[in-house]
Amino acid sequence: MNFKEQLQQDLKIFLNTAEFADIHTIDGVATPALIDTDLLRERSDNEHADGVFFSRIVLFVETSVLGYQPIVGNSLNVDGDLYFVLKCADVDGLYRIELGANES
Questions:
Q1: For a FRET experiment, which of 11, 60, 91, 102 has its CA 20 to 30 Å from that of 72?
Q2: What pTM was estimated for this model as a whole?
């Protein structure tokens, strides 16, 4: 098994709903994905106004399932909540998407 094949095996474990992932609905498509809020906890608390705060999450989803690469500034509906794409990177077949939303 070469390195790329090993990465694909690791990806299958990472997105296995019996191991790490959960089923999330992304723009109307139910798919195994991971949502992480801990990665961004160290962000500054200055990103809010009175009564409003900026919520951030990191979404990990397989590139082939999503079918397109999200574009910074565009919206993405995750489990019925509307977020805006802040960053998106393709990491060996897995999108790492930073999302943000204003909430009150």
A1: 11
A2: 0.81
